[in-house]
Specification:
Elements: H1 2-18, H2 22-51, E1 156-158, E2 165-167, H3 182-193, H4 199-208, H5 215-228, H6 230-241, E3 247-256, E4 264-274, E5 279-286, H7 290-307
Antiparallel strand pairs: 1-2, 3-4, 4-5
Length: about 325
């Protein structure tokens, strides 16, 4: 009987003998906990590498024992997708004749540009032949700008009695007693400030066209043209400074002093940016005018604080002068 009992309970006794002890379970639990912490740390680094911003990538964890907070929000519910069938009709493209075909290898020239036609006839005698079509080839061409002299001829008249002399009045000119016309002045200013062509290169270009102009002459023309733009600048300045939100930045610079040759004084280069209306203004102030600008800057900071909009420093480079 005892033999039968032992035979029946032998597997149970063997399983009880193979069961780990309490110390072994504690050690195994600690090993699994450390392994879990290590895997979570690696997963956090991989998330930073793949989904993190550029400055957060390749940053090692502060401590291998630190765990991530489970504060991720559940994904938003996806709306139900409804399918609908859409049917439409399109016109089948018809083949064009050889004369109407347009080569797809070239860019189409704008239709607004004027066309100058050059008719080319075959070398053979085509008298009595029938014309069946045309081959049109277009090329983009440019006529270089050229200088010319506009003469204002004013006839003078005198009365037969010799009492009075009359003559026609000259039209208003951009620069009084200057030889430059409005078209030439506009081209010089656009080339300098829009196309960034220095004055000395413009002088070289005029020399190639047969007109030698000193650099000082062009500098005076640019200065006179800028003076004509002063009313437009003042209107733009008033509009920018009237904005409720401005970003202002100033940079100190050394400016040549016209009163004392060879010396400089401290100037300030101001940049005003109105982001809401996308307007920009540049201004230069002397050291004596800086106090007024600083007061304006303090007022602007108060406006930034009152509107609760963060102020950003704007760095802008403008290749221009006033």
């Amino acid at each position: 009987m005892s033999v039968v009992i032992l035979f029946i309970f032998a597997p149970v006794i063997a399983q009880a003998e193979n069961r780990p002890t309490y110390e072994e379970l504690v050690n195994r639990n600690e090993e699994l906990f450390i392994q879990n912490v290590h895997l979570k740390s690696e997963l956090d680094q991989l998330k930073r590498l793949v989904f993190g911003s550029r400055h957060e990538r390749f940053i090692p964890a502060a401590s291998p024992d630190q765990l991530t907070l489970n504060i991720s929000s559940p994904p938003p519910p996806q709306p139900a997708v409804t399918l609908e069938s859409i049917q439409y009709e399109r016109k089948k493209a018809t083949s064009k004749s050889d004369s109407e075909k347009v080569s797809t290898g070239r860019m189409l020239l704008p239709a607004s540009l004027p066309r100058e036609q050059v008719i080319i006839e075959p070398e053979q005698d085509v008298s009595g032949w029938k014309k069946i079509g045309q081959e049109i080839t277009e090329e983009l061409e440019r006529i270089p700008g050229k200088l010319f002299v506009r003469q204002y001829i004013r006839n003078k008249y005198v009365k037969p009695s010799g009492e009075a002399i009359v003559i026609g009045e000259l039209p208003v000119r951009p620069i009084e007693k200057g030889i430059a016309g409005p078209g030439l002045l506009a081209q010089i200013v656009i080339d300098k400030f829009c196309d960034h062509l220095p004055v000395y290169r413009q002088v070289q270009r005029f020399e190639r066209e047969g007109m030698k102009l000193p650099i000082s002459t062009l500098a005076n023309w640019i200065s006179g043209t800028c003076q004509l733009l002063e009313p437009l600048y003042e209107a733009h300045r008033r509009k920018v400074l009237a904005m409720d939100y401005l970003q202002v930045d100033e940079s100190p610079i050394r400016v040549l002093d016209k009163a004392k040759k060879g010396t400089t004084h401290r100037g300030y280069y101001w940049v005003y940016h109105a982001p809401l209306s996308r307007l920009v203004m540049f201004d230069i102030a002397k050291a004596g005018e800086e106090k007024d600008r600083q007061n304006a800057s303090r007022i602007s900071k108060a406006i930034f604080k009152r509107t609760d909009i963060p102020c950003m420093r704007t760095t802008t480079i403008l290749l221009a002068s006033r």
